[in-house]
C-alpha cells in the first residue's frame, strides 16, 4: 500500500510497534507532553494523518476530530476511549479501536495484589514494623478463601479477575448487563443480576466496567451504604465510576474497611487528594497494565489494528469500539 502518516500522542512508542507500522509504509510523527486540544488541531492542520496511535487520554474533542480530515483510525494503546468524541468519530467514519485486551493479565494480577494486600493488612503491618511494633501475638487477619468477591463488569479483565479469585478459593459474584448465567457459572463463579443484592453480599467489590454516561458515579453514597462496614472496594477501571467524595466519607466514617485504587476521578491526581491521608487506602498511579511484557503486547496490537484497518485486512472485531463507523466510512467514500 501507499505510504501513510501516523500520529503518536506521546514522545515514544514501543520499538516493536514502530517496526510494524514502518514496515507497512508508516511515517511516524510524535508529540511532546502535554498533548492539548490546540496541539492536536495544529498537527492535523500541518499533515495528512491517516492514523493515530493514542497513548494516554488526549482530548479528541469534536473540534479535534473535525480537524482530522484524512483520519481513518484512532488506535488506543491500551483500554478506554472516554476522551474521544465517539459520535463525531463515528459520523466521520473513523474507526476507534482498543488494545486493552492485551493487558488483561497484568490488570487482573494487579487487582488481585490490591485485594490480598488489603485483606492481609500488608500496608499497615509494613508501616508498624518499621516503627518497632511487632504484632505477631495480636494480629488476626482474614482468609481470602473465606470471602465473597463481587465483580462489576465482565469483559476480558473482569473474567480474568474472576478466574484468579476463584482459583484462590473465594466465592465470586458477577454483575454484568451482557453476561449470561450459562457463560458465567463455573468453578465458584455465579451471576448476580441485582447490583444492590451483590453490594450487600460481598466482602470485596472490584470494578471493571467502562466509563460511560450510565456508569459515571455508579458507586456513590447510596451504593457504599449498602456494603458491609468490613468490605473493601477495588477500582482498577476508571476513577469516575466512583464518587470519590462519598468514598472518602465512607472510609473516614468506618462504613467501609478500606479501598485499593489504581484509578482516580482526575489524573494525574495531586498530593492533596484526601484519599491519601487515609491509612486504610492503598493507591497506585494507574499502572495496573504497565508490566514490561504488557507494554509491548498492547502497543503491537494497536499497530496491527492500524495496518489492518488501512489495508482492509481482517482484525479482531472485539477491538472495534464503534462498528457503525465502518458503514459510515463506505457512505463517506461515495459522497
Structural account:
By secondary structure, this protein is of the alpha/beta class. It folds into two domains: 4-102 and 292-334, Rossmann fold, CATH 3.40.50.720; 104-283, NAD(P)-binding Rossmann-like Domain (Rossmann fold, 3-Layer(aba) Sandwich), CATH 3.40.50.720. Helix content is 37%, strand content 15%. The protein contains 13 helices and twelve strands. The protein has helices at 15-23, 37-46, 62-67, 86-91, 104-119, 122-130, 156-167, 181-184, 195-201, 221-226, 244-252, 292-311, 324-334; strands spanning 4-8, 26-30, 51-54, 73-76, 95-97, 148-152, 171-175, 189-191, 204-207, 232-235, 258-261, 281-283. It has a seven-stranded parallel beta sheet, sandwiched between helices. A five-stranded parallel beta sheet has the order 2-1-3-4-5. Strand 4 (73-76), helix 4 and strand 5 (95-97) form a beta-alpha-beta unit. Helix 1 packs parallel to helix 12. The longest helix has 20 residues, at 292-311. The mean pLDDT is 92.
Notable characteristics:
2 domains, single chain, 37% helix, five-stranded parallel β-sheet, 13 helices, elongated, Rossmann fold, 335 residues, alpha/beta
Give a short summary of the structure:
It contains 13 helices and twelve strands. With 335 residues, the chain is of the alpha/beta class.
Topology, please?
Layout: E1 4-8, H1 15-23, E2 26-30, H2 37-46, E3 51-54, H3 62-67, E4 73-76, H4 86-91, E5 95-97, H5 104-119, H6 122-130, E6 148-152, H7 156-167, E7 171-175, H8 181-184, E8 189-191, H9 195-201, E9 204-207, H10 221-226, E10 232-235, H11 244-252, E11 258-261, E12 281-283, H12 292-311, H13 324-334
Parallel strand pairs: 1-2, 1-3, 3-4, 4-5, 6-7, 6-9, 7-8, 9-10, 10-11, 11-12
Amino acid at each position: 500500500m501507499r505510504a501513510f502518516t501516523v500520529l503518536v500522542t506521546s514522545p515514544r512508542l514501543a520499538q516493536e510497534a514502530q517496526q510494524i507500522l514502518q514496515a507497512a509504509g508508516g511515517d511516524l510523527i510524535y508529540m511532546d507532553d502535554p498533548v492539548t486540544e490546540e496541539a492536536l488541531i495544529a498537527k492535523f492542520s500541518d499533515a495528512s494523518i491517516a492514523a493515530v496511535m493514542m497513548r494516554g487520554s488526549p482530548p479528541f474533542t469534536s473540534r479535534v476530530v473535525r480537524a482530522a480530515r484524512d483520519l481513518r483510525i484512532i488506535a488506543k494503546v491500551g483500554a478506554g476511549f472516554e476522551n474521544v468524541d465517539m459520535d463525531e468519530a463515528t459520523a466521520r467514519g473513523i474507526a476507534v479501536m482498543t488494545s486493552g485486551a492485551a493487558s488483561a493479565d497484568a490488570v487482573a494480577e494487579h487487582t488481585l495484589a490490591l485485594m490480598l494486600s488489603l485483606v492481609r493488612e500488608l500496608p499497615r503491618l509494613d508501616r508498624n514494623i518499621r516503627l518497632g511494633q511487632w504484632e505477631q501475638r495480636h494480629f488476626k487477619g482474614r482468609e481470602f478463601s473465606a470471602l465473597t468477591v463481587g465483580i462489576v463488569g465482565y469483559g476480558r479483565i473482569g473474567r480474568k479477575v474472576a478466574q484468579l479469585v476463584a482459583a484462590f478459593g473465594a466465592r465470586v459474584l458477577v454483575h454484568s448487563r451482557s453476561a449470561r448465567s450459562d457463560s458465567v457459572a463455573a468453578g465458584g463463579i455465579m451471576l448476580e443480576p441485582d447490583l444492590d443484592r451483590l453490594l450487600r453480599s460481598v466482602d470485596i467489590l472490584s470494578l471493571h466496567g467502562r466509563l460511560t454516561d450510565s456508569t459515571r458515579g455508579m458507586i456513590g453514597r447510596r451504593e457504599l451504604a449498602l456494603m458491609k462496614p468490613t468490605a473493601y472496594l477495588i477500582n482498577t477501571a476508571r476513577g469516575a465510576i466512583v464518587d470519590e467524595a462519598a468514598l472518602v466519607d465512607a472510609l473516614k466514617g468506618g462504613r467501609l474497611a478500606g479501598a485499593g485504587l489504581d484509578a482516580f476521578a482526575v489524573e494525574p491526581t495531586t498530593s492533596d487528594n484526601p484519599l491519601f491521608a487515609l491509612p486504610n487506602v492503598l493507591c497506585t498511579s494507574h499502572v495496573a497494565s504497565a508490566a514490561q511484557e504488557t507494554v509491548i503486547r498492547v502497543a503491537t496490537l494497536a499497530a496491527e489494528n492500524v495496518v489492518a484497518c488501512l489495508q482492509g485486512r481482517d482484525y479482531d472485531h472485539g477491538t472495534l469500539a464503534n462498528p457503525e463507523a465502518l458503514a459510515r466510512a463506505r457512505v463517506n467514500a461515495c459522497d
